[in-house]
Automatic annotation (TrEMBL):
Listed Basic and acidic residues bias regions: 237-257
Protein's name in the database: Unconventional myosin-XV
Biased composition (Low complexity): 225-236
A Pfam family it matches: FERM_M
Keywords for the protein's UniProt record, in alphabetical order: Actin-binding, Cytoplasm, Repeat, SH3 domain
Compartments in which it is found: Cytoplasm
Domain SH3: start-end pairs: 131-217
Family label: Belongs to the TRAFAC class myosin-kinesin ATPase superfamily. Myosin family.
InterPro entries cross-referenced by the UniProt entry: Band_41_domain, FERM_2, FERM_central, FERM_domain, MyTH4_dom, MyTH4_dom_sf, PH-like_dom_sf, SH3-like_dom_sf
PROSITE patterns according to UniProt: FERM_3, MYTH4, SH3
């Protein structure tokens, strides 16, 4: 923008310009300034995201956060996450102030008082962008055995192509209802033609129309169009079928000068998106003979240089971005030891690079290409230059991803080094590939790493030990790496409990606990543990991380000792509160007395005791309401009847039997909450709320008898709200009924364990909360 102003001699004294200059100013501002042409809406997300503002523009939506500026008195807007309209399938409003963005591979849920305005604006943009689009998105997997059909996965973007003409003497067709239907006899895209023809990831073929739906043209803000082609043409290149390796556009003769390149190499990427090498006499590039001149010059552009770059590698239209790219390359050289630090530390240089990649998404591909250039054919006089370059690539890949266009080329580069016997840096190349794949899967770190984490990385320490508390005070100190997310922790602890199936992982959640246990909030499965730790250390240095089971669809297993101990410790406190059994008026029946006494005997044996429990110990093993209904001597007599049977059990077997007996209770597998008040007069408060697979069960505080029940089918959505200035209790808002006749109830809960209420799978994206439905997956997120 500054260059454009200088070129046209614009300032406040000479504001008059031609229409073409005005259009150029608007175009550069629209493409370069991330949120300038956006409508901003207040919004909130889940813990660990810091979402404060939702921005909607012509390119998509952005989740923003206000951060303290370096110069401004107020604050600056930081982009936390970006979703283009090509990613968004549709938007719904499940309940008041709640927005659900249905993406190709996840759901994002935010809360905003202006939810309806947001939906209307997003719908208008999506509708307009879908017009004339030749792209569709897969809504279901399609994995046929026939190689002539196009295989794809849910969420894949497919570029529609004209129907492939048949070979001479042949007709294209398919069998429909035992009848051969010729494609050329059908109206293109007509309602009776149930197949499409398209390409994805270089593969082409036919596929059923009902498995896809229209989507906006994928946006490629990271990459410039190739010379001689517009932006739309560059976008179409993503899905173009390649009969052979591409050649650079603009070459007058694709014969002798055109060099066929294997697909998905860094050289192919450079040929498509780097600056024209014929216009780059600088940076030590040597002139070549006509034969192979372009390819060898491109190879030079991808090889180590001792001199700083004068221009970016990728062709960028904005001169300010070009200056940023040259500064970035100088930082890369300084980190690798090939340029003077000039008063900076390695830590300062690394922070500068990570900050540039965080704040300017358009520069991430440039950063990757620059580092790859400097570690390729490295001839530095510094012995550790190449090693430090790989370390830098490892760090960048752990924090920021690359564009979809660069991804296959970069992955192939890393695989070529990591899987070729005899090459140096095999180990770190494999680690870089793993980091990149995880960053692309989970979205990358939201926060810059702290100084301690960066120092550890520079010293070669890539992990730290983090304490996780299991029920009963069990401790697990797990190795946490830069890319570790909550799902990794769940899977690691589940593996220790001999659980390996994904549906089992869905039933366990990591919680962050602050304010001395008064605030408990579940983490999204995509939340980076080190991001959460960094945020919590600023808020409450005494935070802890809990591992708990929240859903109980899968049957209990009794072989693994840690599994049994963890579950025993989790359900025991609720049992001793009497939440698994109801107390009617009068004495408990004989069958109930026998079961309670046996559960008490099993608790005693679980502590590895053989002797008959004392009166005080018996009182600790039995729910208080039941214990008071029978004389202490009678309880001891009942416990004595089970003594002989208990002697044959080990503590592990005693805990397993306890779980087996208790699992027959209707309320087993419930999460319990103390309800202070309820807006629905049908629910007397205070009471106890038990949330389980059967829905919401409101129990009497005194007898724990079931008073009111709402099945899961009746629940449309839930929303958890933190305490306000006028209320010391958090509340949960639950929408019941159907869309036509919906009613809402509000529950005020005790502070402890607020935010743990969950009723269905919640997406792993920022701001996600659970919705009504089957009780599986993650619980609701705290907004």
């Amino acid at each position: 923008m500054k260059a454009l102003f200088a070129q046209n001699q614009l300032d406040t004294q000479r504001p008059l310009v031609t229409e073409s200059v005005k259009r150029a100013v608007v175009s550069i501002a629209r493409d370069s300034w991330e949120v300038y042409f956006s409508r901003l809406f207040p919004a909130t997300g889940s813990v660990g995201t810091g979402v404060q503002i939702l921005a909607v523009s012509h390119t998509g939506i952005k989740l923003l956060r206000v951060v303290k500026g370096s110069h401004e008195a107020g604050g600056q807007l930081r982009v936390l996450r970006t979703y283009s309209f090509a990613d968004i399938l549709f938007v719904t409003i499940p309940s008041q102030n709640m927005l659900e963005f249905n993406l190709a591979s996840e759901k994002v849920i935010l809360f905003s008082a202006r939810a309806h305005q947001v939906k209307t604006l997003v719908d208008d943009f999506i509708l307009e962008l879908k017009k004339d689009s030749d792209y569709v998105v897969a809504v279901r997997n399609f994995l046929p055995e026939d190689p002539a059909l196009l295989a794809f996965h849910k969420g894949d973007i497919i570029h529609l192509q004209p129907l492939e003409p048949p070979r001479m003497g042949y007709s294209a067709g398919c069998v429909v209802g035992k009848k051969v239907v010729y494609l050329e006899e059908l109206r293109p895209r007509g309602p009776d033609f149930g197949w499409r023809f398209g390409t994805v990831r270089g593969r082409v073929g036919r596929f059923p129309s009902e498995l896809v739906q229209p989507v906006a043209v994928p946006d490629l803000p990271q990459l410039p169009a190739e010379p001689g082609r517009g932006r739309a043409a560059a976008a179409r290149e993503v899905g173009r079928r390649r009969e052979g390796p591409p050649v650079r556009a603009g070459s007058a003769d694709h014969g002798e000068d055109g060099l066929a390149l294997p697909p998905y190499t860094m050289l192919e990427f450079a040929q498509k998106y780097f600056r024209d090498p014929q216009r780059r006499p600088q940076d030590g590039l040597r002139s070549k003979s006509k034969e192979g001149r372009e390819s060898r010059t491109l190879e030079d552009m991808l090889c180590f240089t001792k001199t700083p770059l004068q221009d970016s590698l990728i062709e960028l239209s904005d001169s300010s971005l070009n200056k940023m790219a040259t500064d970035m390359f100088l930082a890369v050289m300084r980190f690798m030891g090939d340029a003077s630090l000039k008063g900076q530390s390695e830590l300062d240089v690394l922070c500068t690079l990570l900050k540039l990649c965080r704040d300017h998404e358009v520069m991430r591909d440039e950063c990757y290409c620059q580092v790859v250039k400097q570690i390729t054919d490295n001839t530095s006089t510094k012995q550790d230059s190449c090693q430090r370059g790989w370390k830098l690539l490892h760090t960048v890949a752990a924090h920021r991803g690359c564009s979809e266009a660069l991804q296959p080329h970069l992955v192939r580069f890393l695989q070529a080094v990591g899987r070729t016997p005899g090459l140096p840096f095999q180990g770190i190349a494999k680690a870089c590939e793993q980091n990149l794949q995880r960053t692309l899967r989970f979205g990358g770190r939201l926060e810059l790493p702290g100084s301690m984490e960066l120092r550890a990385m520079l010293a070669g320490r890539s992990s730290k030990r983090q304490l996780f508390l299991l029920p009963g005070g069990l401790e697990r100190h797990l190795k946490i790496k830069t890319c570790t997310v909550a799902l990794d922790v769940v899977e690691e602890i589940c593996a220790e409990m001999a659980l390996t199936r994904p549906e089992a992982f869905d039933e366990y959640v990591i919680f962050v606990v602050t304010n001395r246990g008064q605030h408990v909030c579940p983490l999204s499965r995509r939340a980076y543990i080190l991001d959460v730790a960094s945020e919590m250390e600023q808020v409450d240095g005494g935070y802890t991380l809990w591992f708990r089971r929240v859903l109980w669809d899968q049957p209990l297993k009794f072989e693994n000792e840690l599994y049994v101990t963890m579950h025993y410790n989790q359900v025991l406190p609720d049992y001793l509160k009497g939440l698994f059994s109801s107390m009617t008026a009068g004495q408990p029946g004989e069958q109930q007395l026998q079961q309670v006494s046996k559960l008490a005997a099993l608790q005693h044996r679980a502590k590895d005791h053989f002797y008959l429990p004392s009166t005080r110990e018996a009182q600790e093993y039995i729910p208080a309401q039941l214990y008071r209904s029978v004389a202490a001597s009678a309880w001891l007599s009942l416990l004595g009847q089970h003594r002989q049977q208990m002697r044959a059990l080990s503590p592990h077997q005693a805990r397993a039997q306890f779980l087996g007996l208790l699992s027959a209770s209707p309320m087993f597998g419930s999460s319990f909450f103390s309800v202070q008040s309820c807006s629905n007069v049908a629910v007397p408060a205070p009471c106890v709320l038990a949330v389980n697979q059967n829905g919401l069960n409101f129990l009497s505080t005194e007898t724990h008898e079931l008073m009111v029940k709402f099945s899961l089918k009746e629940i449309q959505s839930t929303r958890t709200q933190r305490p306000t200035a006028s209320s010391s209790y958090p509340y949960v808002e639950i929408a019941l009924g159907d869309v036509a006749a919906q009613r809402t109830i509000q529950l005020q809960l005790e502070q402890v364990r607020a935010g743990v209420l969950g009723l269905s799978p919640s997406p792993a994206g920022p701001g996600a909360v659970s919705r009504g439905g089957r009780a599986r997956g993650e619980p609701a997120q705290c907004p």
